[in-house]
Amino acid sequence: MTGGQAEYGHDERMFDWPTVYRADLFQGETALVTGGGSGLGKATAILFARLGATVVVIGRNRAKLDALEAQFRENGLTLDAAVCDIRDPDAVGALLGRVFEQHGRLDHLVNNAGGQFAQDAIDFSVKGWRAVIDTNLNGTWWMMQTAAQLWREREESGSIVNVVADIWRGIPGVAHTAAARAGVVYLSKTVAVEWAPLGIRINCVAPGCCETTAFGRYPGSGAATFAQSNPMLRAGDEWDVAEAIAYLSAPSGKFVTGEVVTVDGGQQLWGDPWAFGRPSRFELDYSDAKREDGL
After folding, report:
1. How far is CA 184 from CA 46, 121, 133, 162, 234, in A?
2. Strand, coil or helix: what is 54?
3. Phi and psi at residue 60, in whole multiples of 5°?
4. SS3 call for 126
5. Which pLDDT band holds residue 222 (cuts at 50, 70, 90)?
6. In whole angstroms, what is the distance from residue 4 CA to residue 202 CA?
7. What's this model's pTM, rounded to 2 decimal places?
8. More reliable by pLDDT, 236 or 101
9. Contact residues for 153 (Cβ-Cβ < 8 A; gap 6+)
10. Is the pLDDT of residue 219 over 50?
11. Contact 249, 159 (CB under 8 A)
């Protein structure tokens, strides 16, 4: 890692990237990360494991999870990887029940799983809209509610961190995920109050334009616009987000609940990010615009 930026496409290096946290920060604790097979979820799982936690990662792709387990073993870490569709509340209940039974506890839940596709909102199909909302909002809710119910039954406390998005100026090109992530933010703020007497803290982390291996799935993605997205004039990386999640989960966050930590280099204040590529109609020639204005 150089100058705070990831070496894009080399996420295996996260197993030895420097961290500000001590190696035993989460020793004896269990953390569950959804969507941990790649990108931000993978970085978070690696960081929690390096800091001593027993880590459970869930996803829908068995092959990807098997590869992740092998990578953990190669780096001297253990991982419990399980297939689970978070859109199915019964599957979520079975999965979380197994986690408590097998590991004896759950201390940290990181809801990172999600999915979207780039399209003008006016052209969304009913199926496409429902698919994104069902994963990003409903799936996150089933994980949150089920974990909270199990903690309540056991009279145990816990921490939830929901990975959302830098929604404050909207996210052109992915309106469905902007709607879902905004829902998660205000859901989190609401239950942070309701569940405070149970000793459950709920926070969100909102990444801005961060380079992750996940963006390799989108040919012609908007990586070229990342440096224009914030006043730091560079993209962030997975590690920036993972360490923010660790801060909220650790004792450092013990008096923080209902908060959104935005990790975006100032993107919400300034910039023109298009994570999936800026449409040509928004490519402006400012010199021509000045001439038209008589400037």
Report:
1. 24, 20, 10, 8, 27
2. strand
3. -110, -5
4. helix
5. low
6. 27
7. 0.89
8. 101
9. none
10. no
11. yes
